[in-house]
Amino acid sequence: MCVYVAMRVPSIALSCPLSLPVALPPPVSYDEDFHVIQEIDCCRIVSDQRCELLQRVPEATQSIFTFGSTVPAAMLNDAMEAFNNGEAKAEENIRTIQASGQLEDAVNECISAALAEFDVERYDAM
Question: How crowded is residue 24: how many other Cβ atoms within 10 Å of its Cβ?
Fold first, then answer.
């Protein structure tokens, strides 16, 4: 689905095509004038008060954090959270991933998701 974010600027109107999942509305509404600057992989939204990036969530991040996901990377991330909380579930998840022979793929997908992350705490957690 292609969504156009349009705004009114004195004497001109700008628009930036964004590809968003069908289920999601545009994430933010603005009460102030702003400009949308199209980049190669995202759009920058610039106003007098702030500058934000709007971009598609990477597939690796989606697969890890989708509710109920059972892909090896999601299980590895869940195992890390369980380990940090001192739960025995961590070892069980790691053994399940090892038994399926997908531990290396899970680690690589978690690294891919971490590389696209801006939040330092989530980056460190992955």
Answer: 10
Whole-prediction pTM: 0.63
Read out DSSP for 71-97?
SHHHHHHHHHHHHHTT-THHHHHHHHH
Model confidence pLDDT, tens digit, residues 12-62: 334 444 444 444 555 566 778 888 898 888 888 888 888 888 888 888 888
Tokens of 48: 């007098």
Q: What is the DSSP string of the chain?
A: -EEEEEEEETTEEEEEEEE--TTPPPS---SS-EEEEE-SS-EEEEESS-EEEE-PPPHHHHHHHSTT--SHHHHHHHHHHHHHTT-THHHHHHHHHHHTT-HHHHHHHHHHHHHT---HHHHHH-
- Residue 37 CA to chain centroid, in angstroms? 20
Are the beta carbons of 77 and 110 closer than 8 angstroms?
Answer: yes
Structure tokens belonging to residue 109: 């997908």
